[in-house]
Design brief:
Elements (H helix, E strand, L loop, with lengths): L5 E4 L9 E6 L4 E6 H22 L19 H4 L2
Antiparallel strand pairs: 1-2, 2-3
Length: 81
């Protein structure tokens, strides 16, 4: 099984520098780890546990369709309103 993950730097108070989020859109799961590789490892572990749990309960495990990633821009003036 193969799933896309989106990696983002964690920029929240309380997190030490160097942490990254790993989000799995197809499963709506998010985890984090130290560095990009740590976040990927955490995502791999979380996905494996999640799939195992779903299968143990006879539940459907979604397969990922094609994934695309894009950025959109919004006018900063809209945020101040």
């Amino acid at each position: 099984m193969r799933y896309a993950i989106v990696i983002e730097a964690v920029e929240e108070p309380g997190f030490p520098p160097g942490y990254f989020y790993a989000h799995v859109p197809a499963l709506d799961l998010t985890t984090h780890g130290v560095g990009i590789e740590g976040a990927k490892d955490a995502a791999r572990d979380l996905i494996a546990l999640w799939v195992e749990e779903k299968r143990a309960h006879g539940e459907h495990v979604p397969r990922e369709a094609d994934s695309y990633f894009a950025h959109v821009e919004i006018d900063d003036a809209l945020l101040g309103a």
